[in-house]
Amino acid sequence: MNLAARFARLRRGVNLSHWFSQAANYSKAHLETHTTAQDIALIKSMGFDHVRFPIEPAPLLSETRDPSSLNSTYLQYVDNALDMILAAGLSVVVDVHPSDEFKLRMNRDERNIEAFGKFWHAFASHLSRRDPEFVFLEVINEPMVEDGYRWLGIQAKLIATIRAAAPKHTIVAGGHRWSGLAELLFLQPYSDPNVIYNFHFYEPFAFTHQGATWAGPHLPFYKNVPYPSSPLAVKPVLDTVLDEPARYNLLRYGEDNWNAQRIERELDAAASWAAKHRVYITCNEFGVFRRFAKTEDRIAWLHDMRLAFEKFGIGWTMWDYAGGFAVINKTNGQAQKEPELLKALGLMANTTN
């Protein structure tokens, strides 16, 4: 097994959100139409080398409630999707991506953690038939475990469980809570040599999540927040924010002077951690919520992120393909590329619409 060669297949990717995870329903119609072979072909043509495939585990559990027994009908939909992705020549990170409720139930009770391990053993056993050079197994998305030491132990057990069922596949592991940079730096690598470590990066939140209603009390007040930031740049927006805590948060964003150099300093910490422990790292979530961000500023942030990733040899997977942070414009099922955004990501292949 050549881990360097496998890691090289995770250089630049995109998340397939709201398909097998985060959906209102997982009906046959949804699963067969949300993301199609045409979408996968478009992703490949844009120059991406892999996708992250988030999967909500709840529909995979059988009606017997035995966590080691998987729903065969739903599993077939997962297999069909994997066949489609791999046939296009893309590598795939199979990301177990539970709802917050699922994770909170799991974290409250050791028996639920044990059940999750049994689920993973069954799922990894099924996935072990796939080519380990192109299929990667991610333990869990953002575990929401507040205690970092507790998560170290939980993840160690899950890695051992996955490894027992899929001895050749590379496992993707991350830190506690929301798997941010600070959580990666807290993490101690495991003894298993066939593991790649990942973190998520959405800093600065005042810019990347402006207008979002799910990620903190200040963000719904923000629109047209600029990037790069400076006190002068944020002043016009600051004058439109009446909520005092939100104003203070935005004031700090301006004073923090977020720019390419600041991003580079942040990601240098991740690269230094990887070098110290002699491991490979990826950032498999980063992006900007499109609705209220200026297009040129969003493109500038993505450009600066991509250059820093490349400088430090960090693999990346943008959030997301066609959701709120989308890499493409999709209306009435028709996807259109954004050439300037693709250039910012260093993806020059076939950038015409």
Task: Tell me the layout of helices and strands.
Elements: H1 3-7, E1 12-15, H2 28-33, H3 37-46, E2 50-55, H4 72-87, E3 91-96, H5 100-108, H6 110-127, E4 135-138, H7 148-165, E5 171-174, H8 181-186, E6 195-200, H9 205-208, H10 231-238, H11 244-255, H12 260-277, E7 281-285, H13 295-312, E8 315-318, E9 329-331, E10 334-336, H14 339-344
Parallel strand pairs: 1-2, 1-8, 2-3, 3-4, 4-5, 5-6, 6-7, 7-8
Antiparallel strand pairs: 9-10
Helix pairs in contact: 5-6, 6-7, 10-11, 12-13
Write a concise synopsis of the structure shown.
The protein has 353 residues and is of the alpha/beta class. 44% of the residues lie in helices and 13% in strands.
Q: Mean of the pLDDT scores? A: 95
Distance between the termini: 39 Å
Task: Assign a percent range to the helix content.
Answer: 40-55%
What structural class do helix, strand and pairing data support? alpha/beta
The H/E string reads HEHHEHEHHEHEHEHHHHEHEEEH
Overall 3D form: globular
Count of distinct strands: 10
Order of neighbouring strands in the sheet with most strands: 1-2-3-4-5-6-7-8
Radius of gyration: 20 Å
What's the main sheet like? 8 strands, parallel, barrel
Note the total helix count: 14
Q: What portion of residues belong to β-strands?
A: 5-15%
Which residues form runs of ≥5 with pLDDT under 50?
none
